Amino acid sequence: MKRKWEQERAGTSHAVMDGFDVFLNHRGPDVKATFVAHLEEALRCAGFRPFLDARSLMKGNPAFQSIDQALDVAMVHVAVVSKRYAESKYCLNEVVAMMRSGKPVIPVFYDVEPVDLRWVENGPFAEAFEKHKSRGRTETKLQEWRVALQALSEITGFRSADYKRDEALLKRDVVNEVSRLTPSNQPVEVEQFRVGLESSVKGCIQILEDMGAGPGMLGLVGMGGIDGFANYDVFISHRGPDTKTGFVSFLHRDLEAAGLLAFLDCKSIDMGEDSWECIEDAIRKTPIAVVVFSESFAQSEWCLRELHVMLHTPSVKVLPVFYKVRPSEVRFPESGQLKDGFQKLIGRHDKNSIEQWRADLEQASKLMGWEHAGAQGRLEGDLVKEIVEKVLNLANKPLPLFVGDYVVGIKEVVEDIIQTIETKKTILMLGLWGMGGIGKSTLARELYNRLRGRFDASCYIEDVTEKVLQGGVVKVQNLILKDLCRNEAHIVVEDKSRGKTILEERLSKNRVLLVLDDVCDSDAMGFWITRKMLSNGSLCMVTSRDRRVFELSCSLDMNEEVHIQHVQGLSDVDCRRVFASYAFGGVSKVKPELERMVASISKACGGVPLVLKVCGSLLKNEANVLVWNEVMEKLNTGFIMNEEKIFGCLRMSYDTLQEEYQEMFLDISCALIGERCSYAICVWNASGWSASLGVRTLVERALVTVDGGGRFNMHDHLRDMGREIERKGRMGDGVIRRLWMPKFLALLEEDEELPTSLQTLIAHNHKSDTEGHRHIDMGVSHLKELRIFLCKGDINVTTSLPKNVVWIGFRQMNNFPVIPEMNRLVIMDLESSSIRAVCDSVRNASKLEMLNLSYCSELHLLPHSFGMLKRLRDINLRCSGIQSLPESFGELSNLEVLNLTLCSQLRSLPHSFGMLKRLRDIQLGLSGIQSLPESFGELINLEVLNLSSCSQLCSLPHSFGMLKRLRDIQLGLFGIQSLPESFGELSNLEVLILSYCHKFRSLPHSFGMLKRLRDINLEWSGIQSLPESFGELSNLEVLNLTLCSQLRSLPHSFGMLKRLRDISFEWSGIQSLPESFGELSNLEVLNLRWCSELSSLPHSFGMLKRLRDINLQSSGIQSLPESFGELSNLEVQNLSGCYKLSLLPHSFGMLKKLRDINLYASRIQSLPESFGELSSLEVLNLSRCSQLNSLPHSFGMLKRLREIKLEGSGIQSLPESDQLGIAEF
């Protein structure tokens, strides 16, 4: 007869289809329609057949007569434990069956914590278990459920809290874990001694052939013996609190650096694996075990269980390390340093177990190993090195790749990259990108040595570009096949397409590590690497100077499956170490008289290891200071490029560029470092070049950078290389195309005429008190090829500009240049010039797009002809002396950006201003503007408006609401008193800043119409109230009401702001929060610091499930609501200086994610008994809590607490507990 619970269960059905892989155990009302539904769909898309009652019922199916049978069919069980999970007896009965089945179980802790399952009658599941008792469940059944839940909690699973509500990412990781634990159809390795299998195999094959082509199932029944754990080279057994973060972490790092795969519990247990099962299996399969005996080793049952397994597994070689204890103390654990820990163990276990462990300790103490006495003994680094060498010798592993001489500064980078790979488990390709000689190959070799032990096979191919030149794409394919598929070395690839197919077929079966060093052809990459090749947990590492190699070479997801590491230069300290090693054999051997020169030269090498090596080798054992000075001079002047090894290495990236991109690179290296990228793009576009694409290419090949201000920069050595290329080209054909400082002044001093072939000219003549300075008059009209002309200082251009010049930069000049009628001028940059008027010839600049007159303080007016500049897109008049704009200004039909910041003499804008239909961005901050014309609302494309600190502007025109595309308004320190009613019509407004507007009192009723508004800053404004329509701001995310002292309350509609993430009420006059406050379902950060008139929080406060950080410092808060404990995501709480707060609610212990509590100088009198349930608490400040005299007994349960401050409190002692381990006190 069917059991009743099988017929009525709500979580998973009693009737199932006859073919599925994954069983989804869940509580329907919590997650069925949301997370579990999406998970089921994702599993189906991944090729699995998940069982979910809503889709998997097949009425009348006689194949399954009990839930146990249904569970048996699935290969993997997924348990989604949610808040109401324990209410369902069906879920609980299922989890019992799952834990007994022996199948892999993947727990998903959805809005609950693993600890909630261990103490079911104290935490969130307590109420559910009470109901089960009241309904007559037997104690036997209840205990059965408790045991199953506790076992489930001990399996490493997924916590939804770790994903910050990103359920898509959580879903993806669960599917990946199912894939890992589910048997695939790929070939598997068979045991070496397989006797008597042939006849059974033939019989099975005959059965399958008799079944024909249709689908079917072949069942193989028998004893289990298959596992999925990794094979390690060495197992590290240790007592965590003693050595994990110190000695053992260094040992583990160096073992992996030597290419050994080391098992360390905190890093080696995967999701879904039972901790002890994983540890025991790893010990039995690992040939070497290093046991680190320390002071509290004998206190740990786990350490002793591990030791017992090791000593009784004949295939395991045990190497003991007596860390700050003596072998005799291990042999006699009831005396010496191990005494206290062993006594605690005796009190917790039976006599037989104690005797067994005592015998194991005695046996281990007699083994040959290492003894480390601490500060009086050898250095820990030397001990680690000796252990690694011994393990390497015993493991008989192949030697790692030679990384290089004098390699420094690389370990931290390697650790960060490995951490990224381990954290983001989806990475299939690692790209190491950077300029030539920067150390990409060195980094790749170090990573290869560290990672190769984790894979079935590994392959490192260097100089890939050179090999392609020698034998094409197939040469590299054959090398990959040879190293990664050793059993198929007889196969020779002759066609790259067939080679790709072969590699996909062979590599997809194993976990492989492939390194391709120095790749420049993104097209060829597709024949070496595809997603199919890397589908079984493999990793490909590629080094290149061209970022596009990674982005265009394959179909991998750039966000999830590819990680690009930009390889940077060495620090000054590391540069000095490398240079001194090559020059002297080490830093300690540097001669005192050369210390300063060593520091200067190593710094001038710019962090490039190749340059450090060349310069260090040049000066090896050199005592002559004159030689040192010559090398320093070479570095300073760029003539170090005469060293062919450096020049050739750096030039490789340049040589692969298209011709026009090479010209752009030379323009930048010779003349445009520090100049605006946007200006250069305009110039190159005028020459018919693909400028934007060219700049992107230069950046991607690590030849050029563009800083946050949009200006060019590049490494000094790349700059010197570019100038050397230009110099050698000049020597080759005798044509001078680019002339920069100081060569320009040298030509003038020799009274030579500027060559007519010039395309780019940089001329500086700064005034100084030094002798020889002279005023320069120069004519340039004969320079017919000149495209870029940038000059600065005491220079007077006596002729009109050449007609082909595209960009002029005349900074600090006295006169406006004469523009000929026929010209190609696109950019005119006259920043900081002393011009008093814009010459009327400006009307000739019909192609002008960008005009910079910033800091021209003597310029007051623009000519009426200014409106004829129809192509002008960008005008910068920042901090100029401009007093008014001509009426023709509105005729600038292509104007997009206008900067009038700090134009203090500008009072108004012309009426024609509204005709600027393409204007997107206006900067009027700190200007003297007093009013905006009514036509202002006709700027139909305006997106950004800055009116901050316009203290004389008191109102906005009524037409303001017509600015339908306006996204960002800055009105801070504005003299405004109110906003027009039409303000609510700004349908695209996203950011509004009204900070420091002391006269501003209220917002218009139409304010709630701003549906796209994301960010409001009203800091230190005079705001007195918010309109009821405020709650209609459906996209509001950030609200700053700091120092709004006249604001007393919030509208009832405030709780409608469902997207609000961050609120600051600091120093405001707020007296209460509305009951609807708890409806702010996305609120993460709340600042109520110094809200002295706020005495309580609403009862609904506990509904703020996403709140992470709340600051109530020095507020008037008197108590916290009982619902406070329901803030399930709260991490940081500041209650310091809350002099009216004396108690915390009993529910406080429910804050499972709380990490940091600050109660400094509060009047707290006691902590609730539930305080010990704060399982994530790390930092607790109770300083100056003078009325707090004791801590609750449960305090010892705070296992993660590492820092507690008690100075000035009434606390005299901590409660006794062997569970409490505080790092700082």
UniProtKB/TrEMBL annotation:
Name of the protein described by the UniProt record: TIR domain-containing protein
Key words, A-Z: Leucine-rich repeat, Repeat
SUPFAM superfamilies tied to this protein: L domain-like (SSF52058), P-loop containing nucleoside triphosphate hydrolases (SSF52540), Toll/Interleukin receptor TIR domain (SSF52200)
GO biological process, one term: signal transduction
Species in which this protein is naturally found: Ceratodon purpureus
Keyword Repeat: yes
Presence of keyword NADP: no
Single annotated GO MF: ADP binding
Residue ranges occupied by any TIR domain in the UniProt entry: 18-182, 230-395
